[in-house]
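Notebook B, p. 112. Complex prediction, attempt 2.
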Amino acid sequence: MSFFSIFKRAARPGQAPAASAPVGEVLFVGAGPGHPDLLTLGAARAIREADVILHDRLVSPEVLDFARPGAALIEVGKTGFGEAIPQEEINARLVAAARAGGRVVRLKGGDPCIFGRLDEEIAALDAAGLAWRILPGITASSAAAASIGRSLTRRERNAGLRIITGHDARGFADQDWRALAAPGAVAALYMGKRAARFVVGRLIMHGASADQPVSVIENASGPAERVSAGRLAELPALTQACDGPALILLGLAPHPRVASDDQANLALSDFPFLTDLLQEA
Amino acid sequence: MSFFSIFKRAARPGQAPAASAPVGEVLFVGAGPGHPDLLTLGAARAIREADVILHDRLVSPEVLDFARPGAALIEVGKTGFGEAIPQEEINARLVAAARAGGRVVRLKGGDPCIFGRLDEEIAALDAAGLAWRILPGITASSAAAASIGRSLTRRERNAGLRIITGHDARGFADQDWRALAAPGAVAALYMGKRAARFVVGRLIMHGASADQPVSVIENASGPAERVSAGRLAELPALTQACDGPALILLGLAPHPRVASDDQANLALSDFPFLTDLLQEA
C-alpha cells in the first residue's frame, strides 16, 4: 500500500530517521476545531508520521489518537487564563525537538495562522536555521457558522467578515468599533468570554443596536457542543454560562432549525474510519 | 472494516437507498482550496458516499476523484466572469436531486460559509422542506497565509483580520476603507483581480501607504500555485499577470524563505493515500 511521507526528508513511517538524516523539519499543523472529521487529510498524515508532537491543550483526544504508538506527545498549551507554559519555553522545546532530528509536528487548535502566535515560533526556528512548513486547518469561525447553519457573508448584507480576538498582549483588544457596530456587520470573536462585557459596551457606545443578534458556540464541532443565542445586550449572560472554549458570532442568529433539531451538532458520525484504516496499514 | 456513513439516513455506501428511505439529505461540503491533502476527513467521506455531487467549477479534479464510480457529478459553477448557471437554476437542481432520494453533496470551493451564497441555497431547501447540514472547509485565506509562511494575526500588530470580497451583487464591493487603510491592518481579498485598481485607489484615498506590502497567491495550494508580492501601488500589475483564481493578502509580505526555496508551494506529497485506501475498502 502506498503511504507517501508528508515529511520531505523523512523515512517511511515507523522507521527511525537514517543516521545521515539532516536535522528535522517542523510542520505547523492546524488541528481544526475538535471533531476528527474536521481534520484535514494532510494533518492526519502528519500526525501519524510524527516522531514528536507538541500540541496545545485544546487539541482533542480524538485528534491525538492519530499519533502512532511510540510518538512523543508533549502538551505545551495554554488554555484560557490558567497555568501556561511561557512562549519562550514552547519555542525552545520546538527547536530542541527539531535539532534532535525528529519529524516534529507543532499541532495547534484551529488554523495555525489565526491567533496562534505562529510568527513567534517561526522566528525561533529561523534563528536556529531549521526548516518548517504550515498545514492550514479549519478555524473555529467556520465550524461555528456551520453549526448554526448560517453563512458568514451574504450578498446585500455584508461583503466582509471580521475575525477578532477579545484579548491581546495588553488586555482587552481594541478594535475598529465603529465599523463593527454598523448595521449588517458580522464578526467572529475569539477568546471573547471574559471580554464580552467590554465588547458589548464598546459596540453600543459606537451605535450598535442592543437588539442585534449574537450566537455563542461552545466547543464548536465537539461532542459537548452547545449553541446559545440572544441579543447583543444579553451576551455577557450568555457567555457566563459557558465552561468550554466559546466562539461568539456577532450579527448572526442561528438558523431556526438549529434550535429545533440536531442540526446544531455536526454529529457527523462516529469516526473510526481513518483511524482504523491507518491501523490496518 | 468499519465505514460509518456520514449521511444520517443513508444506507451503506454503494447500496441504493432503501425503498422506505425518506427523501434525501443535502450536505453542503467545503472542498477546501484545491490540494486534496487540505480536504477534511469528513468531506472525503461525504464525497465518497454521495449519489449526486453538485460542484463548483473550481473544485479540483483530485478532490472529485474521491467520488465513487457511478456517482453523478454535476458541475454548477460559476467561475469568475465567464458563463454561469443562474443561482435559481442551481437551487432547483439541488432540490430536485434531494427530492429524488439520493445522498446529495453540494461541493463548494473553500468553505461554504464564506462567499458561497450558501444562505440562498439553504432557503431553497427550506422552502422545499428538505434536510441539510454543513461541513466546513479550509478557506482560501488560510491556505494563502500558509503558502507565504505568515500568520494572519500577530500580537502588537493586528488583533483582527478582515475577509473581504472585491465584488458584490452591485459591482465592486464597498468596504470600510478607513479601517482597512490603518497601519498594521491585514485583509484577505477574495475575487479581487478585477477590483484591484479600485481597491488600491480607495485604500490610498483613505490614507494607506502606497508602500504597504501585498501578496498575491494564485491557485493557492494547487500544483499551479504561484506567489507574487510587492507594494500596494503595484497590486494592479501583480494581479494582471494572474490566470487562475487569486487570493490577495493586503498588509502581508511573504516570509523571506518563501521566495528562496520551495516553501511557497505546500507540495505536501503526492496524494494517493486515502484514495488508495478507499479503493481497497
